[in-house]
């Protein structure tokens, strides 16, 4: 039985498409049961519809606080009873309810704890890496808690920062890592091989 997954996004949905493609090829043992967007009209919703997946919009701007927004998101997600919630370019801080603790994951385009936290997303991350003069960057898949990019790390992968890099060229290299790393982490969860021990995530043998 595949792992049932809810995908939360705010934009184009390229991460969603990557997961759908890998599931279709048999490389990822998941079934996406719903897609929820914090913005109306984004292409990620269209990708979901084309795949026959329920596509729901819960506009962040319609809610006065993160708490009321979170309640609306989780109300929709619970209707589909997913085993895992995958953040895929979801641009809002989301309160974590007790019934989803340890069942929400995200990918970040840097090596957490470096270049992470509030305001560190998308191109902002790569700009900060280059401005700092770092020699490596990469991607991190982590569990989600109540603070930006703070949850326990599942997997990390490093990429070199090249002398002539721009934010765009660095982003391309990091995104290639993300496309491999995120499905690997999701598959480990699907196989029941992740165990959280305080700040550490242990990967259990098959």
Order of strands, widest sheet: 3-2-1-4-5-6-7
CATH class of the largest domain: Alpha Beta
Unreliable stretches (pLDDT < 50, length at least 5) are none
Number of domains: 2
Structure commentary:
- The protein is of the alpha/beta class.
- It has two domains: about 1-100, Rossmann fold; about 110-140 and about 155-205, Formyl transferase, N-terminal domain (Rossmann fold, 3-Layer(aba) Sandwich).
- Helix content is about 35%, strand content about 25%.
- The chain contains five helices and nine strands.
- It has helices spanning about 15-25, 45-50, 65-80, 125-130, 165-190; strands at about 5-10, 30-35, 55, 85, 105-110, 135-145, 155-160, 195, 200-205.
- The chain has a seven-stranded mixed beta sheet, sandwiched between helices. It has a two-stranded antiparallel ribbon with strand order 8-9.
- Helix 1 links the parallel strand 1 (about 5-10) and strand 2 (about 30-35).
- Helix 4 packs across helix 5 (about 165-190).
- The two termini are about 15 Å apart.
Descriptive labels:
2 domains; alpha/beta; 33% helix; Rossmann fold; globular; two-stranded antiparallel sheet; 9 strands; seven-stranded mixed beta sheet; 206 residues
Q: Concise description?
A:
This protein is an alpha/beta fold. The chain has helices at 14-25, 43-50, 66-78, 123-132, 167-190; strands at residues 3-9, 30-37, 55-57, 84-87, 104-108, 136-143, 153-160, 194-197, 200-203. A hairpin with a 2-residue loop joins strand 8 (194-197) and strand 9 (200-203).
